[in-house]
Design brief:
Elements lengths: L34 E6 L14 H9 L5 E2 L4 E2 L5 E3 L10 H16 L4 E6 L5 H9 L11 E6 L19 H6 L4 E6 L4 H8 L4 E4 L13 H9 L4 E7 L21 H14 L2 E7 L9 H19 L13
Parallel strand pairs: 1-4, 1-5, 5-10, 6-7, 6-9, 7-8, 9-10
Antiparallel strand pairs: 2-3
Length: 324
């Protein structure tokens, strides 16, 4: 008579929570978290290659494999507390109702004093998050106001595209109606968008600008020049196509000649050291359009933004800011 299988190891089940970094318990509890990761699986206005709706899940799954410890900052960034919200359900009545839904979700967490990091999804979602923050700044064009740092290969300054003013190609234009916009990494735009930028609608750093980073260089003058354009508090939005396709190929609209990892993170760290980051997003990962490494880069960028927003800022802080 068989004695059955041998009793080997501990049979107690161990579950991996579906959360950023796989955090659970107090590290992921909403009450104690400084940061909320808000996943939004939506890409209804995509005009080239769809798939960004799958980006949030891929980023969260890739984040399981990140190290909690960041040697650059000599810190376990997860100790700030990172809560992962449930997926925000898409609104299928059009992009404007979806932006209203994003604004409502962001507002809910901002009212709790949380720093919100939206994980998209397409880039149009940024506007809903910025709208939620902009309501907290009665004079956005002052030194006490809000500025959006907009990293993207495309200008997104069309007043309307494919019948809507609320799609991915008009995000920066709509944000410019609310607060100053500083763009970095742009290398594809239409002639009307160029005219709007030249007329002072936004401050745009085209890519690569004259005197930008050379091979092996860090470009400190360019970085400081961009930071100087950011008065007040800063919201950071990153469309992953700002990276060169050799770094992140899994995007809907790749553009050659983009930024590399060191250039992007050097800029974001400098912003985190000099300004208060009050919100951010990472958008436009289409995981099925490239290798798994793209999702890993996106997840690490989210973690870097959490780090720069919560651990870098060393200027006297004004009370009442998200995440403070």
């Amino acid at each position: 008579m068989s004695a059955g299988p041998p009793d080997v190891g501990d049979p107690t089940p161990v579950w991996t929570p579906f959360s950023f970094l796989g955090l659970d318990g107090e590290a992921a509890a909403l009450d104690g978290a400084r940061v909320v990761v808000l996943p939004v699986p939506y890409d209804s206005t995509t005009s080239f290659r769809a798939g960004a709706r799958h980006g949030p899940r891929a980023i969260i799954e890739a984040s399981y494999h990140l190290e909690d410890y960041d040697p650059e900052l000599d810190a376990d960034v997860s100790a700030v507390g990172i809560h992962t919200a449930p997926f925000l359900e898409p609104h299928m009545d059009g992009p404007r109702p979806m932006l209203d839904r994003v604004r409502g979700a962001a507002t809910q967490f901002l009212d709790m004093g949380k720093l919100v990091g939206l994980v998209g999804g397409e880039h149009s979602l940024t506007l809903g998050h910025v709208e939620a923050l902009a309501r907290r700044y009665p004079d956005p064009y002052s030194d006490q106001g809000l500025t959006v740092l907009y990293l993207d290969a495309h200008a997104d300054l069309r007043d309307e595209y494919m019948g809507t003013r609320w799609g991915h190609a008009s995000v920066a234009r709509r944000i410019a109606d609310l607060c100053p916009v500083v763009q970095v990494g742009v290398r594809s735009l239409s002639q009307p968008e160029m005219s709007f930028s030249k007329e002072g609608g936004v401050a745009t750093t085209y890519w690569p600008p004259q005197g930008m980073w050379s091979s092996g260089g860090s470009g400190p003058d360019i970085v400081s020049g961009i930071v100087d354009r950011l008065p007040g508090d800063v919201y950071i939005t990153v469309d992953l196509d700002v990276f060169d396709p050799a770094v992140v190929p899994a995007v809907g609209t790749p553009e050659p000649g983009g930024m590399d990892w060191g250039q992007v993170t050097a800029l974001l760290q400098a912003v985190g050291q000099a300004r208060r980051i009050v919100g951010f997003d990472v958008t436009e990962l289409s995981p099925e359009l490239g290798p798994p490494a793209s999702a890993y880069v996106a997840a690490k960028l989210v973690y870097k933004l959490i780090a720069y927003a919560t651990l870098c800022y060393n200027i006297n802080r004004r009370p009442g800011a998200p995440g403070v």
